[in-house]
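The aim of this short unit is practical: by the end, you should be able to scan a pair of folded records and say something sensible about each. We start with the first protein, listed as its amino acid sequence and then its structure tokens.
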Amino acid sequence: MPGISIYDLFFSPQQQRQKSAGACSSQHALISGPPNCGKTSLLLQFAYNHAMNKDSIVTFICKQHAFDVKPPFLSQGVQPDSDVFTRITIKYVHDYEELLKYFAAFHVQSELPRAVIIDDFYDLFDERKCHERFGHMRARETAMVKTLALAHDAIIYANESLGPQYECKLLVSDTHTGDGPRLQYIYQRWLHQIFTIRSLDNSRFSVSGGKVLQKGTHDDSRAIYSLVQNTLVLEQFDCH
């Protein structure tokens, strides 16, 4: 199975077959970038791309009212009233405990999604609540590990159940303020592909792949995009 590549953030699987097979990648990925870099917009485009197939449904998980506070930008040509959005389920959660409940009951869903997306994963883990449950110094990290492990197993279950002609993907986002993802040592245990966003100026950004940890390969693809006039615009795509 091809897994997740940078292509998925901008092109549908049908468009990818016309352009290129893409780099070797993982079905579990993290996209990390600085504040206000359009991560949620990329996640929504990823969801839209995978819901274009009329047989597919996608689950998009985020904190309650997240879209109301800061609506994501749509790509050029994507209409907000498109029927594709009817196949994207927006699931609002308050914290990681509701996320755990979702993945614990993943196997009883009447129809399994082809993609599960979690926006601002780290923000779901309140330090106080994690400490109340686990009661030690690394309570938040422990909660993150348990949640990622359960999510990882759920995606494996979905792929075994869907059969070889379909696949289920997990894409998680987080915000970083330095050069790379915070708590990367935790993420990389469960999310084997990490995409990193860097700011080029106030409205232009680059997103690049990296080492696919489980497979030992490297994704050198890079995309440059901008956020202008409430629109996500792909400016350049380099595949090496």
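Turning to the second protein, read its sequence before its tokens, just as you did above.
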Amino acid sequence: MLCCKGPPPPRTEYDVVCIGLTGSGKTSLLSKLCSEATDNIVPTTGFSIKAVPFQNAILNVKELGGADTIKKYWSRYYQGSQGVVFVLDSASSDEDLEVARTELHSALQHPQLCTLPFLILANHQDKPAARSVQEIKKYFELEPLARGKSWILEGSSVDNMDAVKESFSQLIHLLEEKDQEAGRI
């Protein structure tokens, strides 16, 4: 009997799409998760892909730029996604929050995304004007809209990456559950 330990099992990879308006902090959060510098971040034009390593999985995150010119093409990039990260600026103007709400609602109802787990990050919680997670939940009408879907709503800021990592771990847990369900069918 051999008792040598082989290489560690490969980590499961999940393809995740990350959306949100320009300035919501998508790039900063993802760069921090990858331990990259965040001092000269510019708005994402088009999209970028980052492989974000976690202890038990690797998330291949396709981040889509949030500018109006790009937003209308978001749905072209949804195919093949297994999960969704939606980042919103909880300290933004009411107008921008309204736009973010509309975008989140259409993502939650999109045929290619509606069955997927969602991680919704109420970002910039470190700013004085930030609305609480409860306020966001109520304003975005998440309870009635996302009933029956798997979703997580968490506050986030680049100052507290432990909390952000924990939120992503919860998303990975939902992705794993979905995987197991698919395996049972």
